[in-house]
């Protein structure tokens, strides 16, 4: 037993996080552009009292659209729609600092925060996809380091814009004819390396002051960035010890930035595959894995290593670890390539086994088991300071999510680990985060 | 009597289109960031069977936030929210070609079109506001000509992206394991002066194929652009003869581009101020005009003429027409400055009178009168080929809109001029526009 409350986010995929989920009868591939599909998912998650739901975004279709379900809706518009069909759950949209302008992004998130009554979150990404670059006039992706440098300035600009109207700037005095107190609306006058932005924003300060900042960087640069800005962190962790190391490192780095380590919630990914017995769960996992195609797995693995071609290796032999590109040279998703190499080192799989191993969670933890086993895992990792909660990644939708909500959540609630009902209205309240004051607010 | 059906769009303002509307007791300035305010407005317009509602966008706050209600929500997120509380009305968002990337814009509109079941429209603007430039790294606005040149290439890119998935690209064949037919998903390979975009879009083709293209250019360049691309046109017209000239010119230009002139609906702005008698309507107009402040009017007038300072002129004297900057030198809103000069020439107002004259509609037609008089005006302009319908600009909200819906719409319906109920579901159907086939579709 512990008094620590855990946090749950659902990572809303296309048909499911399993690569072959669209081929599984429990998924609904025909509904990817149907807003009611997402409304249904949001309703299930809200019934499960989840802190938030989250939409990823790649700004390009992947290379295997022939075999992999793709083409969902754009996150900010979709979450604005979901705000109206939900009342409490947080709404986290991914948006890129590499391929957009901070003024446009700041106001769309501020607007979503108003529309949802304080439930908006921004998953800050630098866009690891090489395909995205070609949609924005670049022959190739900028380097990992350059992307994080731009991201840092970008976030500074966005936060200034969110603060540019103080909370009480609107005076609305009809007698005096004063709509707003211009002393409480601030030009930000940002002049930096990548951006020059005058401001103020064209939208008054939003309910949360600043929408919640989420990030998923796990490389050295990524952790530094997250420790400085993130209020929630998504991460791929396979192993308790490694996850504890990541957890301790990020909290320590946050402290070094003068932040309260409790102000960053660390949420490793977890893809549960549930069965009423362990055998049943494993059978379901097998069924899903049997639907995978090596050609798809090879393309995905290749993407994790900047396009390196693994198809030259025989499927049923082990690949020597030296044959992989070194993670520190990877310009896409540095840390994820490391997670994969750790698996290779630990488990020494054949190429075919490795592809199956990654089909469920792309490097995130997949756990096939009973609801109790999944709840035990969650409890253990939180108690052992490897996590503040989890980023739940259902293998198929919506059934994988509703099984978790109906079978695992009640166990967590019974153990006193998870809320039985929402106690606040804003995403900040769910995550136990303070509401920032505007940096421009005059001292009283 | 005529068989011609008219089209009605409501231009949703902050507190109203009258500059001083927020000071009027019938407006609700405290609700500008409240999504329910817009839901209420959308419900009124849908009750009135309007074709569409429209949100403008400046990408900056204006200079007179002390005295003018500003700071509403961002159009694309707001309309995505309104899609859920409405079922038929078209949803038109303004978005700038000057300060955004076509890939980002294309997918947000495609997403809105999916979310709304085919009700999205894009008001294409080049952003005339000088303030906006400073929020996007520019010291000053690009020239009128440069903005339209970029806009032309931008729209080409967006339309290619919208077409990049053919309608039937998703095959969803679980037996063969084929999710999509890659022969029907097309890289667009755009290489132009301002943009290089590979594509395809990351969202399947939307219900309307292409969201409806709306534009409000009225200068020579603007008309050329509109005649080539626009399916609906907003325009400011004071005078029947001038409006007829504009109407004929745009339809002729459309024909020259090989387009069906009926495929462009021309919607002049109209701000009705209603009373049960003409005297009552005029009294309401006076009441609103009396709330104006010359300091606000001067700032607005100055904005129409690229910052030219009118405050040096005595308020109660006529300004000689030669004192105004010449419209063709104006880099912001060329055509609107011409509309204002025409008023000066025709009516020879003092500066104070001119400011009052512009307070209601900023150059758009303001009509204070009985519901019958307003209906007569609408009928006359449509019959006289000066308009295909109107862009209704209520002086104050929501009361100005509900008065129009309750008092003017029934007259138009009784005269057989306007629909009694929706006959279609998409914005294209309301406006009688065909659904474009993907340019990449293979002939059968
Ligand atoms: C759960 C999760 C979701 C992510 N979603 C996205 C996404 O939607 N778009 C994206 O470009 N990157 C996404 N990423 C990648 C991260 O932003 C980051 O690039 C990655 O975790 C590697 O970290 P690094 O950049 O520090 O090497 C995600 C990562 C995780 C763990
Ligand atoms: C009803 C109406 C609404 C408009 N809304 C916007 C807007 O939201 N944002 C913007 O930058 N320009 C807006 N404009 C300006 C037009 O895009 C255009 O710049 C203006 O009509 C002048 O035409 P011109 O650019 O061809 O001179 C609007 C114009 C009209 C008539």
Instruction: Specify the number of helices of chain A.
Output: 14
What does the largest sheet of chain A look like? 8 strands, parallel, barrel
- Report the count of strand segments of chain A: 13
Mean pLDDT of chain A: 94
Distance between the termini of chain A: 44 Å
| N-to-C SSE string of chain A, H for helix and E for strand | EHEHEHEHHEEEEEHEHEHHHHEHEHH
Helix-strand makeup class of chain A: alpha/beta
What's the gyration radius of chain A in Å? Answer: 22 Å
User: Which cofactor or ligand species appear?
Assistant: flavin mononucleotide
Q: Strand percentage of chain A, roughly?
A: 5-15%
Oligomeric grouping of the chains:
homodimer
Would you kindly provide a written description of the structure presented here, covering whatever features stand out?
Chains A, B: Keywords: Flavoprotein, FMN, Monooxygenase, Oxidoreductase. 2 copies of one chain form a homodimer. Chain A is 38% helix and 14% strand. Chain A is an alpha/beta fold and 444 residues long. In chain A, the strands form 3 sheets. An 8-stranded parallel β-barrel of chain A has the order 1-2-3-4-9-10-11-13, surrounded by 7 helices. In chain A, strands 5-6 form a two-stranded antiparallel sheet. In chain A, helix 3 (102-115) crosses helix 5, helix 5 (144-163) runs parallel beside helix 6 (220-229) and helix 6 crosses helix 7 (240-256). The mean pLDDT of chain A is 94. At the A-B interface, helix 2, helix 3, strand 6 and strand 8 of A face helix 2, helix 3, strand 6 and strand 8 of B. Residues 11, 56-58, 94, 125, 127-129, 216-219, 221-222, 234-236, 269, 333-336, 391 of chain A line the site of one flavin mononucleotide.
């Amino acid at each position: 037993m512990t008094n620590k409350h855990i946090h749950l986010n659902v990572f809303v995929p296309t048909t499911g996080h399993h690569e072959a989920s669209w081929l599984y009868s429990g998924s609904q591939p025909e509904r990817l552009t149907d807003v009611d599909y997402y409304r249904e998912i949001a309703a299930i998650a809200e019934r499960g009292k989840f802190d938030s739901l989250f939409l990823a975004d790649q700004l390009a279709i992947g290379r295997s659209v022939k075999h992999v379900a793709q083409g969902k809706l754009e996150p900010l518009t979709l979450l604005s729609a979901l705000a109206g069909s939900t009342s409490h759950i947080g709404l986290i949209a991914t948006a890129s600092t590499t391929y957009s302008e901070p003024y446009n992004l700041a106001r769309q998130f501020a607007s979503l925060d108003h529309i949802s009554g304080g439930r908006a979150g921004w998953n800050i990404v630098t866009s690891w996809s090489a395909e995205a670059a070609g949609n924005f006039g670049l022959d190739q992706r900028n380097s990992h380091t350059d992307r994080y440098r731009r991201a840092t300035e970008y976030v500074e600009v966005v936060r200034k814009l969110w603060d540019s109207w103080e909370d009480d700037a609107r005076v609305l005095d009809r007698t005096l004819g004063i709509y707003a107190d211009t002393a409480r609306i601030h030009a930000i006058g940002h002049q930096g390396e990548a951006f020059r932005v005058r401001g103020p924003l064209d939208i008054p300060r939003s309910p949360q002051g600043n929408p919640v900042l989420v990030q998923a960087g796990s490389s050295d640069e990524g952790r530094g960035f997250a420790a400085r800005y993130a209020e929630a962190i998504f991460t791929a962790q396979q192993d308790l010890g490694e996850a504890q190391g990541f957890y301790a490192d990020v909290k320590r780095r946050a402290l070094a930035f003068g932040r309260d380590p409790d102000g960053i919630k660390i949420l490793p990914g977890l893809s549960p595959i549930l069965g009423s017995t362990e055998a049943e769960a494993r059978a379901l996992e097998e069924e899903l894995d049997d639907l995978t195609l090596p050609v798809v797995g090879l393309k995905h693995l290749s993407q994790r290593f900047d396009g390196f071609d693994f198809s030259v290796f025989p499927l049923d032999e082990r690949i020597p670890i030296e044959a992989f590109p070194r993670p520190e040279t990877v310009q896409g998703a540095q840390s994820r390539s490391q997670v994969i190499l750790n698996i290779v080192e630990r488990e020494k799989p054949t190429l075919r086994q490795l592809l199956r191993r990654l089909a469920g969670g792309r490097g995130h933890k997949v756990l096939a088991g009973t609801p109790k086993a999944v709840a035990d895992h969650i409890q253990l990792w939180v108690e052992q300071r490897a996590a503040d909660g989890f980023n739940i990644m259902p293998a198929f939708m919506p059934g994988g999510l509703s099984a978790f909500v109906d079978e695992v959540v009640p166990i967590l609630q019974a153990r006193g680990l998870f809320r039985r009902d929402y106690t606040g209205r804003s995403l900040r309240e769910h995550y136990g985060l303070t509401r920032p004051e505007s940096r421009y607010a005059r001292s009283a």
